[in-house]
Amino acid sequence: MHATAPIGRWAVYVDAATGEPLAREQLLRFASGNLKINAPVRGPNGQRLDFAAANLGVVVNGAAAVTSITGAVSFADGGPANVATTVLGSFVAVASEAGAPAATQLALPPGGQVTWIASSDEFLDAQLTTYVHADRVKQFVRAIAPDFAFLDQQMPAIVNIADICNAFADGETINFFQSDAQCENTGRIADVVYHEFGHNVHFQGIIPGVGFPEGALSEGISDFLSATITDSPDLAPGFFKGSDARCASSTRRAPSGTSPRTTARSTTAGGSSAARCGTCARRCGTSSAPGPGSRRSTSCGSRRSAARSTCRACTPRSCWPTTTTAT
Ligand SMILES: [Zn+2]
Question: How far is the CA of 191 from the centre of ligand 1 (A)?
């Protein structure tokens, strides 16, 4: 028998006595291939990688489909499939406030792969990078909290906003700014995407009427999530153009006879809640020696709506001390 949704041609075996279906065999032969998206591993001036275009909405040879978590799609066997896609997926929907909306058509060979690359275009690369890393951070958190319903929603991710040197989350969305002479486009920095999503995890995890968002705790949670995924104490390398040395905590070692908590406290007075609690050995602390942007570190106020709690990203200047040498 023939089927159209999904497409199939089946041989169905039935019980000779009752007519009950017993087994079926797909007679069509399908091919599959993997869709990739090229994006920075951390930031646009560092290593890049072809990531699986996971959970992405696509149109394959005219039929709507969603890629698997490995970026795989199936199609009728034969020649290369035409894959049309944007940056709208099951769990992340990227929108851009500048430049052309990201969209492409790619030829995907049977048994092969094809990669969407826009590394030379800031606004396009920000859209692709934010999609890749927003989906990755949702997968990461799902492994920790599989029943966390917020993860199953399609989260808006707004990139290329006409502002600079920051990013923010509001509990529902994540938002990223354009580049300028000083700062990189934050939508192109994996660590910032992870960090902003961390704020949403915090906000969404609060039981209404029982808890409330606490800014310093939220920053600590978000930094810890980001640093855990990257397995690095350097948050957002390349955030500032020309300098990606942001945090030297990886070289910190507690003096003999002291605990890491003691070291963290002694070197980051006024540091983040994560550092004060000693829960985050990777964390550098906050503005014991604030730089010019330090005001941002506490600007956890509303940007777009007074009713919504928004919180801006930590930046190197706003959050981290200029001296990180432990003694
Ligand atoms: Zn933040």
Answer: 11
> Contact, 219 vs 273, CB < 8 A?
yes
Residue 186: which of 221, 223, 233, 236 has the closest Cα? Answer: 236
Ligand 1 midpoint to CA 159 (Å): 16
- Asked whether the beta carbons of 20 and 14 are under 8 A apart, the reply is yes
Q: What are φ and ψ of residue 314, in 5° steps?
A: -70, 135
- Give me ligand 1 centre to Cα 223, in Å: 7
Q: 85 C-alpha to center of ligand 1: Å?
A: 31
H helical segments located in 18-121: none
For 153-222, the three-class secondary structure string (H helix, E strand, C coil) is CCEEEEEEEEEECCEEECCCCEEEEECCCCECCHHHCHHHHHHHHHHHHHHHHCCCCCCCCCHHHHHHHH
Measured in angstroms, how far is the CA atom of residue 216 from the centroid of ligand 1? 9
162-172 pLDDT tens trace: 999 999 999 99
The H helix count followed by the E strand count for the chain is 6, 16
Q: For residue 197, give the nearest of 164, 173, 227 by alpha carbon.
A: 173
| d(CA 181, ligand 1 centre) in Å | 22
Q: How many residues does the chain have?
A: 327
The total of other beta-carbon atoms located within 10 Å of residue 146's CB is: 8
What is the whole-number distance in angstroms between the Cα of residue 166 and the centre of ligand 1?
A: 9
Looking only at the bridges linking them, the beta strands covering 30-40 and 63-66 are unpaired
Spans of the chain, pLDDT less than 50: 244-246, 248-327
State in Å: Cα 258 to ligand 1 middle: 30
Tokens (6 digits) for 113: 């792969």
- Each residue of 152-193: pLDDT tens digit? 999 999 999 999 999 999 999 999 999 999 999 999 999 999
Q: Give me ligand 1 centre to Cα 82, in Å.
A: 40
